[in-house]
Known about the structure:
This protein is α+β, with helices and mostly antiparallel strands. It has one domain (about 1-225). Helix content is about 30%, strand content about 25%. Strands 4, 5, 6, 7, 8, 9 and 10 form a 7-stranded mixed sheet that branches. The protein has a 4-stranded antiparallel sheet with strand order 1-2-11-3, covered by helices on one side. A hairpin with a 2-residue loop joins strand 1 (about 25-30) and strand 2. Helix 1 runs antiparallel to helix 5.
Amino acid sequence: MKLLKLVSTIITAVAISSTANATIINTLSGVEYEWMELTESLGLNRDQVEARLVDSNDVLFGYEYASRDLVESLYLSYIPLTEVSDGYAIDDPAYIIATQNFMDDFGVTGFEDRYFEPITEDGRRLYVSNRYTTGGILGLESECLGIEYSCYAGLRLFTSDDSQMVVTYNYFDNFDASDGIIGIPDSSSSPPGGSFLVRVSEVPIPPSVWLFGSGLIGLVGFARRKKA
């Protein structure tokens, strides 16, 4: 019995390790969600992604596009400030750390190395040399500009050579899902990022893990018969 418990533990550990690198687990409104990294669907339009969502052999199988409200809740779980206008730079250290955490989890989907001058809401001009972007398409078919379009939301992080950092919202007006979201064509050949894909959290057991586990159980049975 102890050996069977050990086999079960090994199967669970392998299953968790097989999904840990590409997913982010968080709890929103009491529900635990599993998100796919944006970089996993980088550069794919919605039609291409949705074809993978129904392929049982694909890493995206079982996921679906997140609604606007759910993505808003996701952003606010990282960056709980809502009173800064869209498009202005923010140089608050807490904001910068929160944005870095989001990018660490979901991946960087774009980078530019050139001169920028973002402006803060109070009119200060900041001089920076790099821009990192993380973002993706999202939304149910009825939420954007009709079934031919998807919504898009993202974040930008600016850095300078002297390590000064600033961050801006991008395409979310105060992270309010009821306003400020642009639509991009679903048929776009090069969307500006990945896709916000989500499912209710669970730990899927890949077929290879089940095969590994059944092999171990078989060896246990063989050893017991031989001993008898």
